[in-house]
Design brief:
Blueprint lengths: L5 E12 L2 E13 L4 E5 L6 H8 L7 E10 L2 E2 L5 H10 L1 E4 L3 H4 L6 H11 L6 H14 L16 H12 L6 E5 L7 H18 L2 E6 L2 H7 L2 E6 L2 E7 H6 L4 H8 L38 H5 L5 E4 L2 E3 L5
Helix pairs in contact: 5-6, 6-7
Bound molecules: iron/sulfur cluster (SF4).
């Protein structure tokens, strides 16, 4: 995709483990156009949050990036020095983290946290300019100006998450990675935070990668969805197509597990557990849980391939 703002190419992440190397992200590729909202969905342990950290080069030992590339426009992130990469985080790609409680500094007022983020990236403003900028940012995320003088513990969960969005957009990034941004919030506040994220994304013209496991939220927010299983992408398609006509049996089961008015009282789960990454089954990693598995699935790993216009799936039968 030539007009992509973000390209992830064959990214791999390994963790050193007493039993050997564990492949947490295995050869994942996708790209994102400006303004696009791309979802990365999967059960916990599927590698989706590790992907988000790997894009930002935030994998810490015993983990390491073992191959692949990430491009922001024409900048190859693996070629940047640590200092250049630190500057690119926030200015080019910003993270709205999982659990705003831990992301905000508990002993700093919100104004100071935003001013620190700006100063750290070389944006030196006078006190008056900083105040105006902070007020403006808080307004963008629907927070009143007096939040600037508050400490994180004085804010509700939804307000803290909005404050994290305000910090994330303070340098007008081209890409926002939102890692389960609403996981600790109740449903009403979740929707408000997602509406805020959508609004600031449109104002900035940024692209968004939304990482999460809530397929309902994905259905409402993203344009395209990538489904991860055992560290690999198993399906990528426009969200409408995935919801109405999922091609991979795992995606089909994820969709079937969504509550629906038509299927009242008939909610289905996915049998079995996600495999341990350090002990993956041979062939297709989903075969022990797949109702359609055939002999070939136990022997040969399916690669992600085009199965319809704009849609890819990694299944021998798709
Ligand atoms: Fe199921 Fe086989 Fe497809 Fe894997 S390759 S999802 S086991 S049918």
């Amino acid at each position: 995709m030539n007009d992509a703002v973000l390209r992830v190419e064959g990214l791999r992440v390994l963790y050193d483990h007493p039993v050997g190397e564990v492949r947490a992200v295995d050869d994942v590729s996708f790209s994102l156009r400006p303004h696009e909202r791309f979802g990365l969905a999967g059960e916990s342990g599927s590698g989706k949050s590790t992907m988000a950290l790997a894009i930002l080069r935030l994998i810490r030992p015993p983990g390491r990036i073992d191959g692949g590339d990430v491009w922001l426009d024409d900048t190859r992130l693996s070629s940047l020095s640590d200092d250049a990469m630190r500057k690119l985080r926030l200015a080019g790609i910003a993270l709205v983290p999982q659990g705003s409680m831990n992301a905000l500094n508990p002993v700093l007022r919100i104004r100071a946290q935003i001013a620190d983020a700006l100063g750290d990236h070389g944006t030196l403003l006078s006190r008056r300019e900083t105040d105006a900028h902070v007020r403006d940012l808080l307004g963008h995320v629907g927070l009143p100006p007096d939040v600037a003088d508050m400490y994180p513990h004085e804010l509700s969960g939804g307000m803290k998450q909005r404050a994290c969005i305000a910090i994330a957009i303070c340098l007008r990034p081209k890409v926002i990675i939102a890692d389960e941004p609403t996981s600790a919030l109740d449903v009403v506040v979740q929707r408000q935070v997602m509406a805020t994220l959508a609004r600031v994304q449109e104002e900035l013209g940024a692209a968004v990668v939304l990482v999460g496991h809530d397929m309902g939220l994905m259905a409402q927010f993203v344009d395209r969805l990538g489904v991860m299983y055992a560290g690999r992408l198993v399906e990528v398609a426009p969200i409408g197509e995935i919801i109405t006509s999922p091609k991979h049996p795992y995606t089909q089961m994820l969709i079937a597990s969504l509550p629906s008015l038509e299927r009242k009282g008939m909610m289905q789960g996915i049998p079995g557990l996600a495999p341990l990454l350090r002990d993956l089954p041979p062939g297709c990693a989903f075969h022990p849980r797949c109702p359609l598995a055939v002999a070939r699935c136990r022997a040969e790993r399916p690669e992600l391939r085009a199965v319809a216009a704009g849609a890819q799936a990694a299944c021998h039968l798709a």
